[in-house]
Design the sequence.
């Protein structure tokens, strides 16, 4: 949380962070708050009115239209406006297209797994963006920031469906920026690469990922010196700092693009 009040000029800005109860979203909410913004955590694991490190929480399932509208209504009722939406909630279930070894069919991509990832990562981003954009249109402007992933551009062994959801987010970002720019709404995305562990990296996740990569969970590499030019994984606060900048007017001419934050690993 290095962002200080002042330079960014986001004091009192109302910023919804979906999936803000854990991992990257939690650090984003904390960084925004440290810079003076009113971060609102919209997450399915919180209760309405709960405070997390001082940030107001609203219970929300981003894949459910009614739940999203109710969350947006609650925020507008409380704060009167929405200056930015950080569309961060996401899930990742490593799955192979075909389990060629034939040992663990549960790690082959099923229709159910496909639907779960696309419901949260793609439909959830669309529903939240639509509900917030309606409010931003009435206000005369705003920012929508979608949390993508390096894998959306690069692809990822054992994570094809997840990567496809992030590719969809990058595409939404480009199109929505073209639709909403004339209404002073910027739409952009950021794409983290390999980050320090979050709630997403559960034991079940590690086991599935290891199988898709033909190794044991304990053999999943943590030696990043050869694969990441900066030689380390990314800090969650580094994503928080990027997001705080991107939602601020300091980034006022950036729209319709996905910014990599991957230590030099991703291509442009
Ligand atoms: N961790 C990484 O290395 C990494 C890398 C690139 C991109 N990302 C992206 O960053 C975002 C956050 O990932 P993370 O690693 O912090 O994950 P995380 O599992 O730590 O946190 C995700 C949060 O989203 C919430 N959530 C899940 N489904 C939801 C739903 N339907 N409605 C509302 N909230 C829901 C969870 O309760 C949780 O608080 C995701 O979009 C992920 O794809 C993460």
Sequence:
């Amino acid at each position: 949380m290095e962002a200080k009040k002042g330079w960014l000029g986001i004091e009192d800005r109302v910023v919804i962070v979906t999936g803000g109860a854990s991992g990257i979203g939690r650090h984003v909410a904390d960084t925004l708050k440290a810079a003076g913004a009113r971060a609102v955590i919209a997450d399915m694991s919180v209760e309405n009115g709960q405070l997390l490190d001082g940030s107001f929480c609203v219970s929300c399932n981003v894949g459910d239209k009614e739940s999203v509208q109710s969350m947006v209504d609650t925020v507008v009722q409380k704060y009167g406006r929405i200056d930015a939406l950080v569309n961060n909630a996401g899930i990742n279930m490593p799955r192979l297209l075909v389990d060629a070894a034939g040992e663990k069919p549960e790690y082959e991509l099923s229709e159910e797994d496909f639907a779960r990832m696309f419901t949260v990562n793609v439909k959830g981003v669309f529903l939240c963006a639509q509900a917030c954009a309606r409010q931003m249109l009435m206000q005369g402007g705003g920012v929508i920031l979608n949390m993508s992933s390096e894998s959306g551009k690069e692809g990822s062994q054992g994570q094809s469906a997840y990567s496809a959801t992030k590719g969809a987010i990058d595409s939404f970002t480009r199109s929505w920026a073209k639709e909403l720019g004339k209404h002073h709404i910027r739409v952009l995305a950021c794409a983290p690469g390999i980050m320090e562990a979050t709630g997403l990296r559960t034991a079940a996740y590690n086991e599935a990922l290891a199988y898709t990569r033909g190794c044991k969970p304990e053999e999943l590499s943590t030696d990043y010196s050869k694969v990441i030019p900066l030689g380390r994984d990314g800090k969650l606060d580094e994503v928080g700092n990027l997001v705080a900048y991107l939602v601020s007017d300091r980034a006022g001419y950036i729209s319709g693009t996905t910014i990599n934050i991957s230590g030099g690993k991703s291509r442009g």
Q: What stands out?
A: The chain has one domain: 14-258.
